[in-house]
Amino acid sequence: ETYAAIPAAHAEDTPDTPTIDTLVEHLNAAYPRADRPWAAGDTLKNVLVVLKHPDGTREPLAIGLPGDREVDQKRLEGQLEPIEVEAMDEDELARHPALVKGYIGPEMLGEESKSGIRYVVDPRVVDGTRWVTGANVHGSHVIDLVAGRDFNPDGTIEAAEVRDGDECPNCTEGTLESARGIEMGHIFQLGRLYADALGLKVLDENGKLVTVTMGSYGIGPSRAVAAIAENTLDDIGLVWPRNVAPVDVHVVAAGKDEAIFSAASSLAETLSAQGVDVLYDDRTGKVSPGVKFKDAELIGVPTILTVGRGLAAGTVEVRDRASGERVEVPIGQAAAHVAALVRG
Question: Where would I find the YbaK/aminoacyl-tRNA synthetase-associated domain in this sequence (predicted)?
């Protein structure tokens, strides 16, 4: 492959530009492009971390990725587990005097470089792509540094944050799109935090004593209930599926007449005697029927049985919370009708 059309890499003065934002601002002011403004995605950011291996050894690692991306810690750890990943601190950086903080470039990275630090890059850093990156000199960056011509990393790694519109890693044409999900379970990657504290060690396949890497998972009833509630509610309240509803029927006494409360109480007792779980709203005083109806919709019991004005004509209302369908049922048949609904 030829790079004849791409200018040779050249180091330029970029004083006071230790961050991507300050670098891009300086590039547009001092070295403007003819085609478009410089952007963070034109820069190659080199992030230093320390790998903590299961046997306790520590290894520095450099990750190169476009400047408009951040390293996703969880994604990085997923690529390297059971190895643990830590950010390289100032003390660790001081052990590598060839590296100039804020101006680190590929020239000083790689297993064959002066630093000897393994250098892996994001898959977007492919041969032929050109970058602005650190010149390993304070206040200086290299422009037109070309992957495959001016530097060759030791490998690639999928460690950058994922965004909407990114290419699908499993197909040739699709793009990624974020969407809301419901977390039904969780895996706790405990690593060796507690194992180190407890001195928990085992013999590995070579008979060497190593610290245990720990993990656990959890799927709890409360988490499942919350997920069901979130996935089935509507604009006015909860809509419990019958097989997980806290009760089977919500009986509402909607009125002030004693006859209404007497009939509602009798229906609630009859249903309970038949093994139907009942929530009976027998509130009196200033609690209006409208408030009771709203509360019934909010609570979301699958079947709402209302005893109200229809009692004078000998009927009660049975409402399906999910569909909103309402039917008038003779009061003498109401218990049997509702019990049949509950039992399917």
Answer: 14-145
Tens of pLDDT, residue by residue over 324-343, are 999 999 999 999 999 999 99
Query: Measured between alpha carbons, how far is residue 158 from residues 33, 117, 329 in Å?
Result: 30, 18, 63
Q: Mean pLDDT throughout 181-199?
A: 86
> What pLDDT does residue 239 have?
98
Give yes or no for residue 1 having a pLDDT over 60.
no
What pLDDT, on the 0 to 100 scale, is given for residue 2?
66
Preceding amide of 221 cis, omega within 30: no
> Please, which residues bridge with residue 318 across strands?
305, 327
- The dihedral built from the CA positions of residue 271, 276, 281 and 282, taken in this order, carries a sign that is positive
Architecture of domain 10-156: Alpha-Beta Complex (3.90)
Indicate the angle between helix axes 258-273 and 331-343, nearest 10 degrees.
40
Three-state SS sequence of 46-107: EEEEEEECCCCCEEEEEEEEECCCCECHHHHHHHHCCCEEEECCHHHHHCCCCCCCCCCCHH
> Any idea where the domains of the chain sit in the sequence?
10-156, 186-218, 242-343
Residue with the bigger pLDDT between 39 and 222: it is 39
Burial class from Cβ neighbours inside 10 Å (0-12, 13-18, 19+) for residue 307 reads: buried
Q: Mind listing the pLDDT tens digit for each residue in 272-317?
A: 999 999 999 999 988 999 999 999 999 999 999 999 999 999 999 9
Q: Is the pTM of this model over 0.70?
A: no
Report residue 115 CA to chain centroid gap. Answer: 36
Provide the CATH number for the domain formed by 242-343 in this structure. 3.40.50.800
Q: Nearest 10 degrees: CA dihedral of 155, 74, 187, 205?
A: 40
DSSP string of 218-254, one letter each residue: E--HHHHHHHHHHHH-BTTB----GGG-S-SEEEEE-
